[in-house]
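Feature request disguised as a bug: please show the residue count (411) next to Tyrosine--tRNA ligase in the output. Example input:
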Amino acid sequence: MTTFKSDLLQLLHERGHVHQLTDSSGLDALAARQTVTAYVGFDPTAASLHIGNLASIMLLRRVQQAGHRPIVVMGGGTAKIGDPSGKDETRQMMTDERLASNIASIKGSFERMLQFGDGPKDALLVNNDDWLSKLGYIEMLRDVGPHFTVNRMLTFDSVKLRLDREQPLTFLEFNYMILQAYDFLKLARDYDCTLQLGGSDQWGNIVNGIELGRRIDGRELYGVTAPLITRADGSKMGKSVTGAVWLNEDALPAYDFWQYWRNTDDRDVGRFLRLFTDLDRVEIARLESLEGSEINHAKAVLADEVTKLVRGSEAAASARATAEQTFAGGGLGDDLPVLAIPAEGMRVGAALTALGFTASNGEAKRKIAEGAVKLDDQPVSDAGFMIAPPAQGQDIRISIGKKRHAILRPA
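Example output, currently without the count:
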């Protein structure tokens, strides 16, 4: 088993957060002798982060748990450019107002999971628009441009894969890696930040920042990337059958968030407990050793713990109570999604699509034909069935499969 001198690298390694390190011995020695300041960048391209971002937030949480200082960098500046990594198309341009609104909306996710304040190890949140938007174009070309060669930039996956697929890459996006590298230099100068963390797709961008700091200031900087989080079936973490699993409550009800984790594949339980919870190793080992139907207890614990971190204890308790009431008692939990049925009624397929249970009325028809749709536990066989609004206080439960439920109420 790999061992490190520093609590930071040992914790990251034990919990499964490490994919690549730029200089493991140098970073290990630094973290063992002094407080390290580390950052992760998040481009605010939506009003909520999703669980694909959760692994990166957990990196910062681990940094703080190991006694070091995390910095959350909101990419208000880089989001105006768009990271080409893993993208086939140019991102839609966003206004300053939209970016500011998104940043305000997602701050809560960090405030729940990190300790902010004025102490030497308290988290800090900064916006790279504060410095990137002030850079003069000639100044940037003169001071930073000479340290990047087009030859090398073309070899990075974020650029190479786009070109290999014969997808256009704008000059605007081509500059993204330069701006992100400058972020690292700026943070090193202003906050003595020596470590950048990120997903495996950020390796090239991180290395660029390390090299820029060395060439311009002679700084010794470090990088750690986390593995791409996939589920046991090979699918990418962060998506469900009905879309993104958002962190914000107003984007996804707590019950749906909790249920996503409760539906984890048996093979993923131990790994996800290490990555996304603070449970100790002994308890995780016990939970992942459960077999048969007992593994469902471990999945419920996983759902509880992640929901507590992201949404708070009350949301976790309410979601679990709803699940128990829905599945064990056949009742209607308070956290289930609610759809208002107008006075003229609504076709069952339209209700499924309105709830997000199906992507289209065509998909709804297929699910009905498969016998997967029920109203108050009674199968629906007619795709044109009209749901009349229930009487006040007499809710209807609509279900698709065994795990997706909602409440229908009069408008």
